[in-house]
Design a protein that fits this description.
Layout: E1 5-10, H1 17-30, E2 37-42, H2 48-54, E3 60-64, H3 81-86, E4 91-94, H4 97-103, H5 107-119, E5 123-128, H6 132-136, H7 140-153, E6 164-167, H8 181-199, H9 201-206, E7 208-212, H10 220-224, E8 231-234, H11 241-249
Helix pairs in contact: 1-11, 5-7, 7-8
The chain binds 2-phosphoglycolic acid (PGA).
2-phosphoglycolic acid binds next to strand 8.
């Protein structure tokens, strides 16, 4: 079975309700249904319940940017995966590099959040990727290996087939410096081999691996043209309807 292609917009901490509503209204007009393609928007948390209305009757799916590892309790400021489920989120980003670097999220925590999402039937998009220093010192493969194996160490085996990964080199995020399709493919193959080593070839072949980091309307077709790249996680360019719909149209 062909792997699903996912094009997800990570809005980060951007857009007020009126802007989000207008953006989604334009996307609803411009985005066409295609077989095997999922289009997802991930607004900041307080916009999620509003966005559920905006995507009513649309091909666009809803995702969140982060969640707690627990379902309820005394965790001030956190968001329960159970609430995300009730609010209609099908997807949730986990371990985005901004969460790791700015809020101290560890690989173990990312793994526990991933399992919590899987328990709620939400597809986690697990973000991995190396810093510029790690790439320059040749440590990018081992960095990513650790990120992946620690996540798997926190999961029930039954959940293995429901994971999505996003390779996001930190040096490419918000910098306008995209990884070349060749650089992305090299890492995607490495990630798939690592998954194969841990979980076997059936899981490895079924797992969608997205690329993220300055993906835009100009480079999307080249990236999506690679059979190893199963979609895109788009930050800046997902905030403009024209750009995001062009990215989607290039699949
Ligand atoms: P960018 O962000 O497309 O603006 O580089 C991607 C991301 O951080 O998910």
């Amino acid at each position: 079975m062909a792997r699903k292609t996912i094009i997800a917009g990570n809005w980060k901490m951007n857009l007020l309700p009126a802007d989000g509503e207008e953006l989604v209204a334009e996307l609803n007009e411009q985005v066409e249904i295609k077989e095997n393609l999922e289009v997802v928007i991930c607004p900041q948390m307080a916009l999620v319940p509003l966005a559920l209305d905006w995507i009513y009757d649309s091909v666009i799916q809803l995702g969140a940017q982060n969640c707690a590892e627990k379902l309820s309790g005394a965790f001030t400021g956190e968001t329960s995966p159970e609430l995300l489920k009730v609010l209609g989120c099908r997807y949730c980003l986990v371990g985005h590099s901004e969460r790791r670097s700015l809020y101290g999220e560890t690989d173990e925590l990312v793994g526990r959040k991933t399992q919590a999402l899987l328990n709620m039937g939400i597809t986690p998009i697990v973000c991995v990727g190396e810093s510029l220093a790690q790439r320059e010192s040749g440590d990018h493969f081992t960095t990513i290996d650790t990120q992946i194996s620690v996540v798997f160490s926190q999961l029930d085996q039954t959940a293995w087939t429901r994971l999505v990964f996003a390779y996001e080199p930190i040096w490419a995020i918000g910098t306008g410096k995209t990884a070349t399709p060749g650089q992305a493919v090299e890492i995607h193959q490495h990630i798939r081999n690592k998954i194969k080593e841990i979980a076997g070839h059936v899981v490895a072949n079924a797992t969608s691996i997205l690329y993220g980091g300055s993906a835009n309307a100009a480079n999307a077709a080249d990236l999506l043209g690679e059979s190893e790249i199963d979609g895109l996680l788009v930050g800046g360019a997902s905030l403009k309807a024209k750009d995001f719909s062009q990215i989607i149209a290039s699949f």
